[in-house]
Amino acid sequence: MLAPVPIRVILGEDSYLVRAGVREMLSSAPEVEIVAECDDADALLREVEAHRPDVVLTDIRMPPTQTDEGIRLAAHLRAAYPAIGVVVLSQYADPAYVLELLDEGSEGRAYLLKERIHDRAQLVGAIDAVASGRSVIDPKIVEVLVAARRRGERSALSQLTPRELEVLAAIAEGKSNTAISERLVLTKRAVEKHINAIFLKLNLSHSPDADEVSPRVKAALVFLADGEPR
Known about the structure:
The protein is an alpha/beta fold. It folds into two domains: 7-137, Rossmann fold (3-Layer(aba) Sandwich); 140-226, Arc Repressor Mutant, subunit A, CATH 1.10.10. It contains ten helices and six strands, in the order E-H-E-H-E-H-E-H-E-H-E-H-H-H-H-H. It has helices spanning 16-27, 41-51, 69-80, 95-101, 120-131, 139-151, 162-172, 177-184, 188-201, 214-226, and strands at residues 7-12, 32-38, 55-59, 85-90, 109-113, 136-137. Strand 5, helix 5 and strand 6 form a beta-alpha-beta unit. The radius of gyration is 18 Å and the shape is globular. The protein starts with 6 loop residues before the first strand and ends with a helix.
């Protein structure tokens, strides 16, 4: 039986120590192959054009400007190479970065905090998810958004039950109905009922395909961050 073809990854990170740590972590993951490494955004784009990887794993801030190179690269790849997934690594639990990353769609995009990447399974899981066109949002980002919205005196989230809030948080992480049912120990039908109730209370539409996660992720994040659906 042939071994599965590994996911080809290009790593962009200007910190040598972080880059070496990620490389070492992924070297023992047979499902991932790092085909190139870069320490600035321009070199990263050149390597992408040369290798056409399955996934780009990139720091959010790199030379030349040390601002939002990872986000801008993801936007460029969405237009130029839409099949390439992007995992953005960041030390900033800032919802604005996440919303900008998802501005043109959440398919094939992940946002992870660097404090989480010591967990190889989580990092490999995010790489696999974006390679398959799915999305992953760091749970801490979701916690920040939910906490901010719940502080609002007139927050629409006050209409949600504790269980519905748990389901909404899982939706915003990019989890499918099946994954939500497993996490919360609910039947899939119960999850679907909770989701219908959530989107009705929040006045948000969602895909008729209950397991089509990506369109729901940005809707939930935008509502939680801005207070108004776009």
